[in-house]
C-alpha cells in the first residue's frame, strides 16, 4: 500500500525500493512495472535485510505474525530490521506496531488465558515489545494500526449463513466500538507520515478509518451485500473455543479491544488518519469496493 501510494505521486520526490522474498511473483512484477526497484530479502536472514536497506533514506517495517504464529520469531525479525536500519544510517523508520497489552493488564490469567507462557495477545504483545528495538537505535515513528477490514476477505471473518439461512457476522465485542481500517489505507497513511517528514520521528501515531460496533458493521454489510446480515455477539470464551488456528489469540484480542475500547479509540483519531491520507475509506466505502470479494 505504501509503495503504491508513493509510486502514484511521482512529484513527492521519493524513489521506492520494494522488498520481497519473491521478486518474480505477480506482486513483485506489478510493483516493478509501476516503477519500483524490487529487491529480494528475507526477514529471517538479517544479512539480506541489511543489504536491502543500504543506501535507503527511510523504511516502512512490517511483520506477519500469522505466517508462523511465533512471537519470538516476530521479535527476531523486528530486531533484524532495526539493526539493519541503524547500520544503514536510515533517517526515518516507520514501524507498524500494536499495543503490548501486558502494560494494560498483567498476564496472570485472571481476566483472560495466558498464551504461550507469557502473553495475553501474542501478535499484539510482541510488536509492542519490539518498539524499543527500533526507538533505541534509529529515528522511528511508531504507527499503531487497527483491525483490518480485509480480514472479512482473507481471514475467514466475513458473514456466514446460520442454520436458518440468514447471514451472521460474528464478533465477541458486545456493544463496544472497534477501530478498523482498510489495509490499503495503512500504506497511504505511512506515505503521509513520510511526506510530512522528520517531525514524526520519535512520535507515536495511531490510525483508524472508523470506530464501529458489531451491529453497525452488520448494518453496513446488509446494505452492501443486499441481504440481511445480523450481528452475532458471542463471548470471548466462545470465540476462543472456535478451534481454528489463532482462535485463542484473536479471542483475547477482541476481549482487549472491548475492555479498553475508549483508550484504544482515543489513540487512533480518525482525523489524524484522514489528514495523512485524504483518500481514507469508511467501512461503507470499503464494502462498496470489495463486496464481491467478501
Task: Walk me through this protein's architecture.
- There is one protein chain.
- With 294 residues, the chain is an alpha/beta fold.
- Helix content is 42%, strand content 17%.
- The chain contains 13 helices and twelve strands.
- α5 links the parallel β4 and β5.
- α7 packs across α12.
- The longest helix is centred in the N-terminal third of the chain and has 18 residues.
- The mean pLDDT is 97.
Summarize this entry quickly.
With 294 residues, this protein is of the alpha/beta class. The protein has helices at residues 2-7, 26-34, 46-53, 71-88, 122-135, 151-154, 183-196, 214-225, 236-240, 247-259, 261-266, 270-276, 283-290, and strands at residues 17-20, 37-40, 58-61, 92-97, 140-144, 147-148, 160-161, 167-171, 177-181, 204-206, 210-213, 229-233. The strands form four sheets. A four-stranded parallel sheet has the order 3-4-5-10, with helices on both faces. A three-stranded mixed sheet has the order 6-9-11. The protein has a three-stranded mixed sheet with strand order 7-8-12, with helices on one face.
Amino acid at each position: 500500500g505504501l509503495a503504491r501510494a508513493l509510486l502514484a505521486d511521482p512529484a513527492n520526490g521519493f524513489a521506492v525500493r520494494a522488498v520481497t522474498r519473491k521478486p518474480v511473483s505477480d506482486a513483485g512484477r506489478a510493483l516493478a512495472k509501476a516503477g519500483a526497484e524490487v529487491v529480494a530479502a528475507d526477514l529471517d536472514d538479517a544479512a539480506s535485510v541489511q543489504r536491502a536497506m543500504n543506501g535507503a533514506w527511510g523504511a516502512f517495517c512490517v511483520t506477519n505474525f500469522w505466517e508462523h504464529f511465533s512471537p519470538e520469531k516476530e521479535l527476531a525479525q523486528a530486531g533484524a530490521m532495526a539493526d539493519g536500519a541503524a547500520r544503514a544510517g536510515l533517517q526515518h523508520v516507520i514501524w507498524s506496531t500494536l499495543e503490548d497489552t501486558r502494560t494494560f493488564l498483567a498476564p496472570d490469567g485472571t481476566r483472560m488465558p495466558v498464551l504461550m507462557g507469557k502473553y495475553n495477545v501474542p501478535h499484539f504483545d510482541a510488536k509492542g515489545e519490539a518498539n524499543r528495538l527500533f526507538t533505541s537505535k534509529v529515528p522511528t515513528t511508531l504507527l499503531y494500526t487497527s483491525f483490518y477490514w480485509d480480514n472479512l476477505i482473507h481471514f475467514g471473518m466475513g458473514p456466514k449463513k446460520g442454520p436458518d439461512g440468514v447471514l451472521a457476522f460474528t464478533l465477541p465485542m458486545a456493544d463496544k466500538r472497534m477501530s478498523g481500517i482498510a489495509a490499503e489505507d495503512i500504506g497511504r497513511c505511512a506515505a503521509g507520515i513520510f511526506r510530512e517528514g522528520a517531525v514524526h520521528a520519535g512520535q507515536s501515531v495511531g490510525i483508524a478509518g472508523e470506530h464501529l460496533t458489531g451491529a453497525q458493521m452488520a448494518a453496513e454489510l446488509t446494505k452492501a451485500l443486499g441481504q440481511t446480515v445480523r450481528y452475532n455477539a458471542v463471548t470471548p470464551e466462545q470465540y476462543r473455543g472456535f478451534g481454528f488456528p489463532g482462535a485463542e489469540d484473536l479471542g483475547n484480542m477482541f476481549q482487549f479491544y472491548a475492555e479498553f475500547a475508549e483508550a484504544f479509540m482515543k489513540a487512533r483519531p480518525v482525523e489524524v488518519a484522514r489528514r495523512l491520507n485524504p483518500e481514507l475509506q469508511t467501512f461503507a466505502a470499503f464494502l462498496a469496493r470489495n463486496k464481491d470479494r467478501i
